[in-house]
Design goal:
Layout (H helix, E strand, L loop, with lengths): L8 H11 E3 L6 E3 L3 H9 L1 E3 L5 E3 H10 L5 E3 L6 E3 H13 L1 E3 L6 E3 L6 H5 L1
Antiparallel strand pairs: 1-2, 3-4, 5-6, 7-8
Length: 120
């Protein structure tokens, strides 16, 4: 996958065919002596805490952006909980009321950010 001077191409090709192998999973050139370790460390299937089986090399991204059990923070109370519980919690949490110190009305938490524009 790199440019090789024409004068060195034949020797380079022989060297590569003896020493390198293309990984059947990621198509990267890996030294033959390291292929087993590469497959075991990068492409072995692991189970996420959510139960999904995924390649080890993809687990970090899955846990950060796709896992339903990844940590998430409620926009109303800053409580940290699992992403799959966030919507239900925010619906309940945002419907709670707090007394406005300006006008004295009870205002739903989800409306607190816009309320100062209404009450002045």
């Amino acid at each position: 996958k790199k440019d090789i001077p024409v004068a060195n191409f034949t020797i380079h090709e022989i060297h590569c065919s003896r020493n390198l192998e293309v990984c059947c999973y990621c198509r990267e050139s890996i030294p033959k002596t390291e292929m087993k370790n590469h497959v075991e460390s990068e492409h072995v299937q692991v189970t996420c805490k959510c139960g999904m089986k995924i390649e080890k090399s993809l687990l970090e991204d899955h846990e950060a952006s796709a896992c339903p059990l990844r940590p998430a923070v409620c926009q109303h109370c800053d409580l940290q909980l699992a992403f799959n519980k966030l919507h239900e919690h925010e619906s309940y949490c945002g419907a709670r009321t707090e007394r406005c110190s300006g006008c004295g009305l009870n205002v739903m938490v989800r409306d607190l950010k816009e309320h100062p524009q209404v009450c002045g």
